[in-house]
Structure formats: structure tokens, C-alpha cells
Amino acid sequence: MSKEIRSINIQTDPLPNSGTLRLNILTLALKTDVNKESLAKVLKGRAPNQIFIMRPDETAITRYLKTAVEGEEELSLHYWEIASLQPLQNVRLAVFSFTVLTRLASTVETANELRLIDDCISKAVISRASSSKAPTQKNHWWKVW
């Protein structure tokens, strides 16, 4: 369906007993014109507990939770994915993941961190590449107010 044409990975250094926030940015080249349905195809089907929203600005956001085990520790992985239409049959995909030890997942601190991340992502303003060329790393395509 698509080919990844560029990827960027950013990761935070966590404080003790805090989760780790990661951001991966991908630009996908689709074989057909991109539209709202393309965004839905890119994002839907990630997890059974997935929440999917198509925003009025033709940006799609999904949120879901997965679990994993690393060594003897159980992990909770919270995901937010934002897909936006870009020129030349491209879709820009930002994948935020917040990983926290499951035993800490129900703490007030973790709840506050998740609320802050969710609030910032839901209020993100997405820009479009303005030229007919594929976007470069210098284009800032999302901004949190």
C-alpha cells in the first residue's frame, strides 16, 4: 500500500518512575491520491481498544493502549498517531508512544502525564507542505499551542 520515504525518531530521557515518551515521524508515499479515506486506512485496525477521530482539518488521530513484557516487568504502551495529507500522494504520520511500568500506570503522576500528552496532541495544529516537492526535515508540520 505505501512506502516509507523518511523517518525521524525522538525520545525523551525519563525521570525515575516516570514513563518514556517517544515520537517517530514517517512520510508515506501512497500509490493513489490521498484523501480522508486514505488516512482512515493508514490508522484503523491498530488495536481492539482503538479510538479514531477524523478532525475537520482533514487530520486523523487514533489513540490506543498495548501491553508488553520486558524482562520481568509488565509495560503499558500508550499510543497516539496523527496522519495528515501531504502533496504528491504522501501521508505524514506522527506516532507518539508513552511507555510506563504497568505497576505505576494507575498513579496520579502517570495520570497527569497522560492527560498532558493527550491534551497537547489533541490541540496540535497541523500544517501542510507548501511546495510540490516532498517535505524536508526543515518543515515544521505540527505545533502545540
Question: What does this entry look like structurally?
Answer:
By secondary structure, this protein is an alpha+beta fold. Helices cover 16% and strands 46% of the residues. The longest helix is centred in the last third of the chain and has 15 residues, at 108-122. The chain is elongated and about 45 Å long. The model is unreliable at 131-139 (pLDDT under 50).
List the helices and strands and how they pair.
Layout: E1 2-11, E2 20-30, H1 36-43, E3 51-54, E4 59-70, E5 73-86, E6 90-101, H2 108-122, E7 125-126, E8 142-143
Antiparallel strand pairs: 1-2, 2-6, 3-4, 4-5, 5-6, 7-8
Descriptors:
six-stranded antiparallel sheet; alpha+beta; 145 residues; elongated; two-stranded antiparallel ribbon
Strand content: over 45%
Q: Largest sheet, if any?
A: 6 strands, antiparallel
List how many beta strands DSSP finds.
8
The residue-averaged pLDDT reads 79
What is the helix content? Answer: 10-25%
Strand order of the largest sheet: 1-2-6-5-4-3
The rounded Rg comes to 16 Å
Number of helices: 2
What gap, in angstroms, lies between the N and C termini? 33 Å
Low-confidence stretches are 131-139
Identify the overall geometry: elongated
